[in-house]
C-alpha cells in the first residue's frame, strides 16, 4: 500500500504535526505515522481578499502554521525537526470563506448559509522539510535544564533552510434543508465551535449532510490519500524540475522559550513569510515542489551523516520522563480531568505553581502527546485520560510516582553499580528489604501502587496465556495487591486463589480490592516465600518475581516451590521478555535489579532444572513471556 513504504522513509525522521486538531492527530496516528504534536501559534489572520482562490488562502495558512513551528523549534534549542506538517481546513460557499465560528451566533450564521446548499471544503497542507544550517553543526538537542527555562535572549547563529511541498484537496458537501430548530439544537450541542464551517461531518454534523463528493477525511480535516500520494511523489524519487528551494532567513523571531505563552507571543508576521511566489494552481490543485536537499539525502549525494534522530531521542529521553513524572506529581492530569480545558494561567493558579514554568510544562506535555491545546486551553489527550488520571481504571499514576521517587534514584547510581558491581536496586529495594517495608508504610504503598498499575496491563494476558482450568487452587507468590489473583478467579470460576506476600504488604492490600463475586475465592496470607512454608496449591504463580533476585536466591525459591508442588501440579512464571539469551530486557521494565534477563528458553531450562516437565512458553502482550511447567513425579 502506498503509505507503508512512505512511512518507512519517515520512520527515522523526526516528524512534527503543527496542529492542535485532535482529528488530524487521529487520522495520521491511525495511518501509522509516528509524529510529535507541536500546535502552531500562527494567528490565522491572513487577508482573505488578497487570495485569488479560497484554497490559496488555506494552503498559505497551512504553510505559515508549519513554518512557525519549524522556526520556533529551531530558534529555541528544541531539536529542529526533520519534517513539519501544517494543515488548514476551510469551507467555501459562494465567495465566502467560513472558518471556525467565534460564538453561537456565528455558528448560526454559517450553518444558515450552508443550509440546503452545496459547498466546498478545502484543506490546504504544507509539508516543510527542515535542514538546520547551524554553525554549531546539524541538529540541536532539547535542553530542558532549569537554566534554559530562565528567560534569556538566544539569538540563533544558524539559519533554518526549509523546503516546502504544498497542496490542497477539495470535497463537495451538500446540506439537507434543515429547520431553524434543528440548527439551534445542533449549535447548542457545542460541536460546531471548533470546526470549520461550524459542523463536524464525522459526528452529529453528519446528520446535516445529504451527500459528499470527494475525500471524506478531507472534510474532517486531513486529506490522507492526497498526502500519501504527495509523500510517494517526494520519496520515489523527487524530480529536480519539481523542486523549488526556498530559504528562510526571515523566520519570525521569538524572544525566549519562556515567552512563548499565548498571551505574550504574537503569531509570526505574514509579511515575514516565505520568499518566492505563489505558483499557478495546477488543475488538481497539486503544486508539489519536492525538496532538492531531500533528494540529495535520499540518494546519497549528501556527504553529511543521516540525522541521529534515534540517538538524540535517547539522550533527551530522561527529560521527557521527568516532565511526565513532574506533571503526575502535580496531579496535573487530575485537575484537567475535573476542570479542563484550562488556560496555562488557570492551571498555575489551581496548582499554586509558577505561571511561566507551568506554561512551559504544559507546552512540553502537549509536544509529548499527553495534552492537547485548543483555543479553550489545555486538556488531557486520550492516553492521559486512560493512564495518567490517578483514579482511572487503567491508571499508571502509581508507576510514575514510584519511578520518580525511587527508580530515578537507582539510575542516578548506575555508574557506581557498573564500577562496583553493587546492586543499586538494593540501594532502594535493599533499603526496603533492610528497613522492612513495615517501617516505611508510604514507601510500601508507593511500591504496591506501582506494581498494581503495571500488573493491570498484563494480568489478563498472564491468566489466559494457557488453559489453567485443570487446577483447583493457585498460590500467587509475591502477589502484592492481588490484581493477578482477581484475573485468575475471574477467568477460572472454580479456582481458589491465595495471595502470599510479606505481612506489611498483605495488611495494605485491602485498599486495592474492588467488589465482585470472585473475591470470595481469593485470600491473602502473610509470609516470606524464602522462609515460611508455602500455602498448599495445585498451581504456583511467580509474576515479575524472578527478575528481582540473584541466581542463588532464585534457585532457593524454585527449589522450595518444587518441594511444595505435588506431582502433576504446575508452576506458572511470567517475566519481562528478553528476546535472546542474555539480552538486556526492555529498559522500560529493567530496574537494575539483581536478576538476570532470561530468554524463554532459559526460563524453560530453569524450570526443567527444578523438576518441572512439559514446559511451555507463550507471550503475554509485548511485555511479558509466560512459562508453564508441570511437576514431574520424583
Ligand atoms: O467536518 C468537519 N470539519 C472540520 C473539522 C475540524 O475543524 C478544524 C478546522 O480548523 P483548522 O484547520 O484551523 O484547525 P484547528 O482545529 O484550528 O487546528 P490547527 O492547530 O491545525 O489550527 C479542524 O480541527 C478539523 O478537524 C471537523 O472535525 N469535522
Q: Could you describe the 3D structure shown?
A:
The chain has 634 residues and is of the alpha/beta class. It has 3 domains: 3-132 and 161-235, Maf protein, CATH 3.90.950.10; 320-392, Winged helix-like DNA-binding domain superfamily/Winged helix DNA-binding domain (Arc Repressor Mutant, subunit A, Orthogonal Bundle); 449-631, Vaccinia Virus protein VP39 (Rossmann fold, 3-Layer(aba) Sandwich). It is built from 22 helices and 18 strands. The chain has helices spanning 3-11, 22-30, 54-75, 104-114, 146-149, 180-188, 216-220, 224-235, 292-298, 309-329, 332-339, 344-351, 355-367, 382-387, 397-412, 414-420, 424-434, 441-464, 483-491, 503-506, 551-564, 600-609; strands spanning 15-17, 36-37, 83-93, 96-98, 118-132, 160-175, 209-213, 246-248, 286-287, 371-374, 377-380, 473-477, 496-501, 522-526, 539-543, 570-576, 612-620, 624-631. Strands 1, 2, 3, 4, 5, 6, 7, 8 and 9 form a 9-stranded mixed sheet that branches. Strand 17 (612-620) and strand 18 form a beta hairpin. Helix 1 packs across helix 8 and helix 15 crosses helix 18. The protein is elongated. Residues 134-156, 245-291, 427-432 and 584-592 have low confidence and may be disordered. The chain binds ligand LJZPGDOY. Residues 19-21, 23-24, 39-40, 65, 87-89, 100, 194-196, 199-202, 205, 219-221 line the site of ligand LJZPGDOY. Its cofactor is a divalent metal cation. It comes from Delphinapterus leucas.
Amino acid at each position: 500500500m502506498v503509505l507503508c513504504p512512505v512511512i518507512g522513509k519517515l520512520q527515522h525522521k523526526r516528524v512534527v504535526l503543527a496542529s492542535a486538531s485532535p482529528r488530524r492527530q487521529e487520522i495520521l496516528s491511525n495511518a501509522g505515522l509516528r509524529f510529535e504534536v507541536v500546535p502552531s501559534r500562527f494567528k490565522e489572520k491572513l487577508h482573505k481578499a488578497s487570495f485569488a482562490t479560497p484554497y490559496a488562502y488555506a494552503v498559505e495558512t497551512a504553510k505559515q502554521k508549519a513554518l512557525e513551528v519549524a522556526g520556533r523549534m529551531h530558534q529555541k534549542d528544541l531539536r529542529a525537526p526533520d519534517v513539519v506538517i501544517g494543515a488548514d481546513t476551510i469551507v467555501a460557499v459562494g465567495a465566502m470563506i467560513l472558518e471556525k465560528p467565534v460564538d453561537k451566533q456565528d455558528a448560526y450564521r454559517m450553518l444558515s448559509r450552508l443550509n440546503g446548499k452545496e459547498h466546498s471544503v478545502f484543506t490546504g497542507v504544507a509539508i516543510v522539510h527542515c535542514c538546520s544550517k547551524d554553525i554549531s553543526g546539524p541538529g540541536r538537542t532539547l535542553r530542558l535544564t532549569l537554566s534554559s527555562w530562565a528567560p534569556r535572549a538566544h539569538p540563533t547563529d544558524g539559519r533554518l533552510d526549509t523546503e516546502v511541498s504544498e497542496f490542497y484537496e477539495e470535497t463537495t458537501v451538500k446540506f439537507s434543508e434543515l429547520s431553524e430548530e434543528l440548527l439551534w439544537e445542533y449549535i447548542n450541542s457545542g460541536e460546531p465551535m471548533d470546526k470549520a464551517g461550524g459542523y463536524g461531518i464525522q459526528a452529529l454534523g453528519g446528520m446535516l449532510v445529504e451527500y459528499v463528493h470527494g475525500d471524506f477525511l478531507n472534510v474532517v480535516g486531513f486529506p490522507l490519500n492526497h498526502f500519501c500520494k504527495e509523500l510517494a511523489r517526494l520519496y520515489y524519487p523527487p524530480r529536480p524540475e519539481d523542486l523549488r528551494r526556498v530559504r528562510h532567513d526571515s523566520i519570525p523571531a521569538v524572544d525566549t522559550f519562556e515567552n512563548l505563552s499565548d498571551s505574550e507571543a504574537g503569531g509570526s508576521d505574514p509579511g515575514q513569510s516565505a520568499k518566492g511566489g505563489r505558483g499557478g494552481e495546477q488543475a488538481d490543485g497539486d503544486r508539489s515542489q519536492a525538496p532538492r536537499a531531500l533528494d540529495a539525502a535520499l540518494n546519497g549525494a549528501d556527504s553529511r551523516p543521516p540525522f541521529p534522530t534515534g540517538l538524540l531521542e535517547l539522550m533527551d529521553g530522561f527529560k521527557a520522563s521527568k516532565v511526565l513524572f513532574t506533571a503526575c506529581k502535580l496531579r496535573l492530569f487530575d485537575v484537567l480531568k475535573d476542570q479542563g480545558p484550562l488556560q496555562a494561567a488557570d492551571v498555575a493558579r489551581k496548582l499554586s505553581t509558577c505561571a511561566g514554568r507551568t506554561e512551559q510544562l504544559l507546552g512540553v506535555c502537549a509536544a509529548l502527546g499527553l495534552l492537547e491545546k485548543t483555543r479553550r486551553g489545555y486538556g488531557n489527550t486520550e492516553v492521559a485520560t486512560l493512564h495518567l488520571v490517578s483514579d482511572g481504571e487503567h491508571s499508571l499514576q502509581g508507576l510514575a510516582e514510584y519511578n520518580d521517587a525511587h527508580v530515578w534514584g537507582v539510575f542516578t547510581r548506575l555508574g557506581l553499580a557498573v564500577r562496583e558491581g553493587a546492586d543499586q536496586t538494593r540501594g532502594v529495594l535493599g533499603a526496603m528489604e533492610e528497613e522492612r517495608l513495615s517501617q516505611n508504610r508510604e514507601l510500601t504503598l508507593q511500591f504496591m501502587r506501582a506494581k498494581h498499575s503495571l500488573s493491570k496491563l498484563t494480568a489478563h494476558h498472564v491468566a489466559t496465556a494457557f488453559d489453567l482450568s485443570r487446577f483447583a487452587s493457585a498460590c500467587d507468590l509475591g502477589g502484592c495487591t492481588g490484581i493477578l489473583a482477581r484475573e485468575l478467579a475471574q477467568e477460572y470460576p472454580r479456582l481458589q486463589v491465595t495471595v502470599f506476600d510479606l505481612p506489611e504488604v498483605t495488611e495494605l492490600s485491602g485498599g486495592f480490592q474492588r467488589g465482585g463475586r470472585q473475591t470470595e475465592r481469593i485470600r491473602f496470607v502473610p509470609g516470606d516465600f524464602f522462609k515460611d512454608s508455602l500455602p498448599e496449591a495445585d498451581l504456583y504463580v511467580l509474576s515479575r518475581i524472578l527478575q528481582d533476585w540473584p541466581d542463588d536466591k532464585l534457585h532457593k525459591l524454585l527449589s522450595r516451590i518444587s518441594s511444595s508442588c505435588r506431582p502433576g501440579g504446575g508452576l506458572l512464571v511470567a517475566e519481562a521478555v528478553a528476546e535472546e539469551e542474555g539480552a538486556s530486557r526492555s529498559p522500560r521494565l529493567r530496574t537494575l535489579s539483581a536478576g538476570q534477563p532470561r530468554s524463554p528458553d532459559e526460563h524453560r531450562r530453569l524450570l526443567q532444572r527444578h523438576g518441572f516437565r512439559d514446559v511451555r512458553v507463550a507471550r503475554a502482550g509485548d511485555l511479558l513471556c509466560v512459562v508453564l511447567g508441570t511437576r514431574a513425579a520424583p
